[in-house]
Design goal:
single chain, about 325 residues, alpha/beta, Rossmann fold, Dihydrodipicolinate Reductase, domain 2, 2 domains, 8-stranded mixed beta sheet, 6-stranded parallel beta sheet, 8 helices, globular
């Protein structure tokens, strides 16, 4: 049996704490410690999980073979670079960096060092999306809504990098064609950066995607609706539910018997973050490609940056 993978989490605030918990659960992983610039936060999580608190990331280098970076976005580049340069596989939370140039450098470094470099687009592991994929043949129009109440954490980046980037990654994974045109609008509401945004993407295949993201909504929503020939499919990431309407007849006889079959899949709730962590550990131990590679994260970041620039040009 393969020995457990020695790993650690750097940045154990709200989200990083969950990452550390997942490593602790996995038999194939060995959480050797947690690291955070805030000693009080780091010590608390370390005590909770029964592992050492390590203040300096450099002190982790001789202890780990893989690491998750869940610190603030502005620190991602330097932290990822530190571990990749020293031969450590890296899983980094989204957005992977603040700039495309930084992301490109990290991808090249990981490839040069032949290391796994996974980006934390967790919705790829959501049971609803996994179940729906086999039905998604050739999307023609996609509409996403990712709405959340305001939370102070995460406001070091705007709503495009904070929330919309999740749906950008999902949509890019569903459409194989390149993006041809981008248009977007957005505005600050509670912060100095964009808090609500809408973007419209047109792909070279002719597919269209319309995305809305808000972090100043009263209610949370995480949905993508997909239209394709003879089908309409709705994916609810929050409820982990898929609704599928399929055309069954070419003739509409009367309104009481519309030619559609309606299927609803209420899936058993799964832990997408646990599956994401398991996938990263597996890719390291078995030397297989990451489900969401650094290059995948780079493509989503490039598109997010295009949307941000489009919004800024309108101001």
């Amino acid at each position: 049996m393969t020995s457990p993978l020695p790993c650690a989490v750097v940045g154990v605030g709200y989200l990083g704490r969950f990452h550390a918990q997942k490593y602790k659960i996995l038999e194939e992983a060995n959480l050797v410690g947690v690291c955070d610039i805030n000693e009080e936060v780091g010590q608390k999580v370390a005590e909770e999980l029964g592992v050492p608190y390590i203040k300096n990331p450099e002190d982790l280098l001789p202890l780990v073979k893989a690491v998750t970076i869940a610190a603030t976005t502005s620190s991602h580049f330097e932290l990822c670079k530190l571990f990749l340069e020293n031969g450590v596989h890296v899983h980094v939370e989204k957005p992977m960096t603040t700039t495309v140039k930084e992301a490109e450098e990290l991808c090249s470094l990981a490839e040069k060092k032949q290391l796994k470099f996974q980006v934390g687009h967790v919705e790829r592991f959501n049971a609803a999306l996994v179940a729906a994929r086999e039905q998604l043949k050739e999307p023609l129009f996609m509409e996403s809504h990712r709405l959340a109440p305001f939370k102070p954490r995460g406001v070091d980046v705007d709503v495009v990098l904070d929330l919309m980037i999740h749906d950008l990654d999902v949509i890019l994974s569903l459409v194989s064609a390149p993006v041809k045109t981008v248009s977007a609008v957005g505005t600050p509401v509670l912060t100095s950066t964009t808090d609500i945004a809408n973007a419209r993407l047109e792909f070279e295949s002719g597919a269209i995607a319309n995305l809305t993201a808000s972090r100043v909504s009263l209610n949370a929503q995480r949905k993508i609706r997909v239209f394709q020939k003879d089908q309409y499919l709705s994916i609810d990431f929050g409820k982990q539910e898929v609704s599928l309407l399929t055309k069954t007849d070419s003739v509409v006889k009367d309104l009481s018997s519309l030619p559609f079959r309606h299927d609803i899949w209420s899936l058993e709730k799964s832990d997408a973050l646990l599956e994401e962590t398991r996938a990263f550990v597996k890719s390291v131990l078995e030397d297989t490609p990451c489900v969401v590679s650094g290059r995948d994260g780079l493509v989503a970041l490039k598109l997010a940056r295009q949307i941000i620039e489009c919004i800024q040009r309108r101001k």
